[in-house]
Amino acid sequence: MEQIKEGASVSVNYTGRLEDGTIFDTSLQEGRNPLTAILGQGQLIPGFENGLMGMSVGEKKTIEIEPKDAYGEVNEQMVQEVALTQVPEGIKEGDMLQGQNQYGPIQVTVKEVKESTVVLDVNHPLAGKKLIFDLEVVSVN
Questions:
Q1: Which neighbouring-strand residues pair with 82?
Q2: Number of separate domains in the chain
Q3: 108 shares a domain with 66
Q4: Strands 79-83, 23-26: parallel, antiparallel or unpaired by DSSP?
Q5: Are residues 38 and 106 in the same domain?
Q6: How does pLDDT run across 36-70, given as a tens digit for each residue?
Q7: Is a pLDDT exceeding 90 seen at residue 101?
Q8: Which residues form the domain of 51?
Q9: In 7-71, where does DSSP find H-type helix?
Q10: Residue 137: exposed, middle, or buried by beta-carbon count in 10 A (0-12, 13-18, 19+)?
């Protein structure tokens, strides 16, 4: 059985959840395919990639990824207050907005809506969270 190593093209079914059991993403939804990536090219978060190393086709395992090996810790400098006039009307706390920075599109979370301003969080929605993935290797090339 071929074991996964850096440079391998891997297809994997996964379900990602938070410590409270909330599922945030899965390849097992109808209409979705296994995740396919070439390891060692920065396509996946480091902890996910490390968790796949050494696995073989058909193997299943559950991995836990600390924030530093996932989407990082929450960076308070990425929380900004802007004028209410700069965001769409009718937004509420918890809404996700699409923004743009020098690297391309970004997701922004509305943390708080005040009288004339809104607090936006540009951190990845999963920043600061421990991630738990159930993995099943489908193929290795």
A1: 118
A2: 2
A3: no
A4: unpaired
A5: no
A6: 999 999 999 999 999 999 999 999 999 999 999 99
A7: no
A8: 9-71+127-140
A9: 46-52
A10: buried
- 129 Cβ contact list (under 8 Å, min separation 6): 18, 19, 67, 70, 71
Backbone angles phi, psi at 46, to 5 degrees: -55, -45
Structure token pair of residue 22 = 């909330």
Structure tokens at 51: 């968790």
**What CA–CA distance (Å, rounded) separates 76 from 127?**
11
Predicted model pTM: 0.84
> What's the start-to-end Cα distance of the chain, in Å?
11
d(CA 53, CA 4) in angstroms, rounded, equals 5
Tokens of 136: 């099943």
- For 96, the token pair is 């996700």
Is residue 60 included in any domain, yes or no? Answer: yes
